[in-house]
Amino acid sequence: MKFITTDSYDKLSRMAADLIAAQVIIKPDCVLGLATGSSPLGTYANLAKKCADGDVDFSHVTSVNLDEYAGLDGTNDQSYRYFMDTNLFSKINICPEKTHVPNGCADDLASEGARYDELIASLGGIDLQLLGIGLDGHIGFNEPDEFFTKETHEVELDPSTIEANARFFASKDDVPTKAITMGMMSIMQAKKILLIANGANKKDILDKAFNGPITPMVPASILQLHSDVTVIYSEN
What we know:
The protein is globular and about 45 Å long. The strands form 2 sheets. Strands 1-10-9-6-2-3-5 form a 7-stranded parallel sheet, with helices on one face. Strands 4-8-7 form a 3-stranded antiparallel sheet. The chain has 7 helices and 10 strands.
């Protein structure tokens, strides 16, 4: 495991973008696992610039996103499909048909989870998975629990997750209480994992995740078992 500390969010974002760009350059038809939230915004802005400058070509890349809110379709400006389209996909030369996000509006989220896992398997798995980390240690929307869930699945969002995400909505009451998220199997089978975190409030959970016991009560702690993890952290 590599743990890199930087002194600014800008540096964190540039370093993360460099690692993702390197993956695409090494394997132009790679499968990227992507994340949402505030942490990767700078990374995506840097990737968009690299593409615009001709430094990296996404035309053969396939992407699979970690999660989606239950009940929000891609036209909702708080959906993760909308987030990805707005902040990355529309700014790079990736084929829209090769960008995949779980369908939070599926009639049966269990069947949607099985379909999504089959999709990832059919692509040969994920070459590089980008992750953030929640204050409770969640990755994707895998919340603290009594066990690690392998498959893509429906999840009840923890109150702390709802509180943290409320800033993106008109009010806390507007935040969906359920989501569909990639499970631990697809995440842990990714060939490389890149986790980014910024802010002094993330220091404690990073310590628990990577220096504490492996426990589903701190979902990110399972990453200790992966052979190729890079963590980039900035306190500022």
